[in-house]
Structures are given as structure tokens and as C-alpha cells.
Amino acid sequence: MKVLVIGGVAAGTKVAAKLKRENHDCEVTILTKSKDISYAGCGIPYYVGSIIPNRNQLIVNTPESFSELTGVSVLTQVEVTKVNPSDKTVDAINLKTNQPLKYEYDKLVIASGAQAISPPFDGINLKNVFLVRTPDDGEALRTAVEAGDIKRAVVVGGGYVGLEVAENLFSQGVRVTIIDMAKHILPGFDKEISEYVENHLADQGIITFTETKLEAIIGEEKVEKIKTSSRAFKADAVILCVGIKPNTDFVEDSGIELMPNKTIKVNEFLQTNIKDIYAVGDCTTVTNRLTNEPIWSPMGSTANIAGRIAAKNIAGSKTAYPGVLGTAVVKLPELNVGRTGLTETDAKQAGFDAESVVAVVDDKAHYYPGASFFIVKMIAHKETKKLLGLQVLGKGAVDKMVDIAVTAITMGATLYDIQNMDLAYAPPFSTAIHPFTHTVNILLNKIEGRFETITPAAYLKGQAKDYKVIDTSASPSIDGAHYVDLTKVHKELPELAKDEKLLLVCTKGKRAYMLQNRLKHYGYTKTLVLEGGTTFNEITI
User: Fold this and answer.
1) In what order do the strands lie in the sheet with 294-295?
2) What are phi and psi of 487, to 5 degrees?
3) How confident is the model over 513-521, as a mean pLDDT?
4) What is the pLDDT of residue 364?
5) In sequence order, which residues have a C-beta less than 8 Å from that of residue 238 and are 6 or more positions away?
6) Residue 283 annotated to the active site
7) What is the pLDDT of residue 120?
8) pLDDT at 495 over 90
9) Cα gap 229→519, rounded to integer Å
């Protein structure tokens, strides 16, 4: 069987390597327009920040080493220009010689990936305008930083790559500003979580300007400033992280069905609408595991998993790709951020009767050096109690919180199923009641009516304006608020009426919950706890 793979980065090399392991007699050929294959695109921001010292570390395999290791034939600098399903061939061109080429296949895999969007701004061709997609892009940006050419940079785009680039430039002493057209950075997070991250970045020295459109890049020979929809910024460099677009122009006349965003439509077996043609990676649309709706997931993790499954199907298995959860994690200055599943907003839009809680929980034993906290937003279905999503912020290992949630959602677990899991505990790693379990308990208390709260989002909308703020921190910390020492509440409080609307606030939420429990015992009927306390919210009296 002759299998042709178009594209040689994550998905393409994974298909090819796995297929040769499944059936070494397959004749597998990769065609790629790049001179590199199998490079770690996700590592490029960290190469820019010199965390990864050598460019060669980004190259997982060379064409020669990959061929020797797997038995796959790799043809570089060959660009496919057309797919001909009727005679099972593809047209291509040798980019070194401009020679036209034609290749036959029995099975075709399109893994052509995506490319960084470079909008036609005025000044786009000035020196020190950078993209971040290939090792060459990373090399150019790092060289400029190390040469001292960049003192002030504007990163255009507040998604994961933009934030990673901003963090790494900032670590190199570059003054960084982020602009984004959207209302908030971090797509895939609820508004209040994104706002917290924006404020955190500002505290660190990275300012974000949202709802701000880049209009022009200005300079004589190199970048001097930019013009936006709100104001002008001085800058020595502009890094464009405005998104990517799938490399699918060459299939538009082939009969292969495309989605509105020009990605290739595939079924659960990663087959296109045309027999013997598969598609995987950044050039395809897959499905959301929770909603079964189409979703574009241009992630290295998605590409590798899908590539492996496609190879098994080509080799004769019948293995379905179950879909994605939108799982992601990103490292920022003094803060790690992760997510999986549905946001509260998306869950409700998808028709789920969703409930959420924002909890501040210790990330390890509080007495252990370096202990900090996680800010967790957990979302579940009210009736079934099935976990739907999680967003988490913290200095520590947020990925372990995300990965537990991924496992639970994948297995269709309810909050009860995961409430008492035997998770790893030792003071350097966790708390005796794991922070994930702690959050589950808090959400269950809320759903079952034992914990009556107001969310940070509702508080921002002014829904607690009629409530009297009660500061119940370990010591008074909210100017103008009435202070109540939890440890001294052993009877009714004469200064507070039992039907008075009371908003209970502490540092994290725990003492406020304990006070609410005690006040209920003494007959107080209108108390709410502000989720996340002063750690997450700015309190106004």
C-alpha cells in the first residue's frame, strides 16, 4: 500500500511513524514544503526567552534521522499544489528547482497544518516585524533581542502564543505591551478569570489593551511606533500573534469538503468526504467531546493524538477519535493558567443547566516553603452533577488540577464520583484534602444549598449592592467594613439583625463560609459569601 502524507510537522510525522509500526510493508512518503520536519513549534517562545538555549533542540528529527528511524521517505521543499482524487495523484512543485512533480497514492493523508496570519497592515514589511510559527521566526526574534535592537515591543494578540512570547520577552528585559481586538485576553476563559490575569500582568509590568485594533506600523526602515484604534504606541518591534489560518488552498478544487473557516471536515475516523483521503492536525476541524459540535483545535497534542488514530485506521483498525475538551495551559510571569472543558458561559449557551464556584484553595501544605494557592473556577451540571469544566490560576502546578478534571470529564464522572479520590499527598506536593477535592466539596456544598454565595461575576454587576459587607478575615482588612471575629461568634450578634442582608468576605472564602454556617445556626437568614474573597475580588464599600 502506497501512502502519501502531505505535511511533516506534528500530525504528518506521527501518522507516518505510527503507520510504519502498524504495517512496515507500507510505502509511506512525506511531502513537505519546509526544509525542516518534526520541529517543536510550541517551544519557539521559550527559545526566544533563552530557556531553550539552542535552536537544534527545537528540531525533534531531521529528515535524514526520521527516515533512518522509521523507514519513511521524506521529501522536503516539495509543495503540493493540487489533489486529484479521480486518478489518486497529487501535483507538486520542487521549490528548489521549480520542477513540476506528480505523485501517486493508494491512501492520502492531508496534514498540511496552518500558517501565521500576517494581515496587510501598512508597515508590515518593516524591520523588526515578527511572526512566531517556525524555528526561523524564533531565530530572527531572538537574534534581534540579543543584539539589543528591541527595548520596547508590542505583541499583537492575547492568545496563548502571544502571552508566551510576551512572558519570554519580558524575562529578557524588554518592555512589553499586549494589544488585542477582543474584550479580553485568553480566549476560552470566563470574563472574570481573564480580567484577573490582565490585572496580574499589569502588576508585573505587562500592560494589556483590549478592544484595540492594530491599524498601522510606522517607521522609516524599522519599527518606530504603531497606530491603533485607540492610541499610538512607541515600539522597537511588533510581534504578530493574531492567529493562524489552515493551509488548505490547494484542496479547494478537489471536492474535499471544507468548513466555513477553510479547515477540512472529517468524520470520527478522520476521513474526509472522499474515499481513501484522511486529514489530521491544524488543517482540520474536529468535535467538542461534551457538545459534539465542530471545533478547531490547532494544538500539538490534538495533532499527535489524531495522527496516531488516523494511522491505525489506515492500517485497518476502526478507531474513532473522541473529540477534544479545549484543554490548555500557559506560563506567565509569577502565574500559571490552565483550563479544560466548557466555560460557564459556553455551558449555558450549549443548553446545560450549569452551576459554578470560584474557590481559593491551598496548592500544598500551608507550612511548606513556597506554598501558595490556586484560584479555581469549577463548572458542573446541576442535576446530574457531572463535571463540565475547570479554569485554574496559580504559581504552582495548575496542570495537575487540569489533568484531573480532564480525566473526570472524559470518564463522564459526577462530583460524587470524584469527591473522595485517593489523590497523592505529601506536604511538598499537595494538601491532605487535595485542592481538587476541596473545590469539588465547595461546589457540592453550593449545589446542595449548604453554601450560599454570590459569584465574582455577579458581584461585579452590582448584585450585592444592598448587602452590608462583613469582614471576617483573620484580622480586619477591608476599609469601611464591619468586622466580625469568627472565633468569638458563639451566640447571636446584637449589632446585626437576623433578616439583614449580609455579604460575608474574608481572604479566601473559608472563614466566611464558617461564619455563614454559624450565623445560620443562630437564625440569620440573608447571608451570602463572596466567592474568592479578597484574593480574587476588589471590594468596594
Assistant:
1) 264-265, 284-287, 294-295
2) -70, -15
3) 97
4) 96
5) 128, 129, 130, 153, 154, 156, 214, 217, 223, 226
6) no
7) 87
8) yes
9) 52
| Ramachandran region, residue 347 (left: φ > 0; alpha: ψ -120 to 50; beta: rest) | alpha
> In 3D, which of 293, 244, 255, 301 has the Cα closest to residue 112?
244
Query: pTM value?
Result: 0.94
Roughly what angle, to the nearest 10 degrees, separates helices 10-22 and 63-70? 20
End-to-end CA distance of the chain: 73
Q: What is the rounded average pLDDT for all residues in the chain?
A: 96
- Phi/psi class of residue 276: alpha, beta or left (left: φ > 0; alpha: ψ in -120 to 50)? left
User: Do β-strands 100-104 and 107-110 pair in parallel, antiparallel, or remain unpaired?
Assistant: unpaired
Task: In whole angstroms, give the CA distance from residue 410 to residue 412.
Answer: 6
Here the cell at position 37 is 520536519
**CA-CA-CA-CA torsion sign (319, 59, 69, 63):** positive
Q: Which residues of 3-31 are buried (b: 16+ CB within 10 A; e: fewer)?
A: bbbbbbbbbbbbbbbbbbebeeebebbbb
- The HSE-up count of residue 297 (CA atoms within 13 Å, CB side) is 24
Write out the three cell numbers for 409: 470529564
Q: What is the DSSP string of 277-300?
A: EEE-GGGEEEEBTTT--EE----H
Q: Which of 42, 241, 283, 506 is catalytic?
A: 42
Q: Could you tell me where the beta strands, DSSP code E, fall in 163-224?
A: 175-179, 207-209, 214-218
In residues, how long is the chain?
A: 541
Rounded mean pLDDT, 114-125: 90
541 has pLDDT over 90: no
Judge contact between 154 and 240, C-beta under 8 A. no
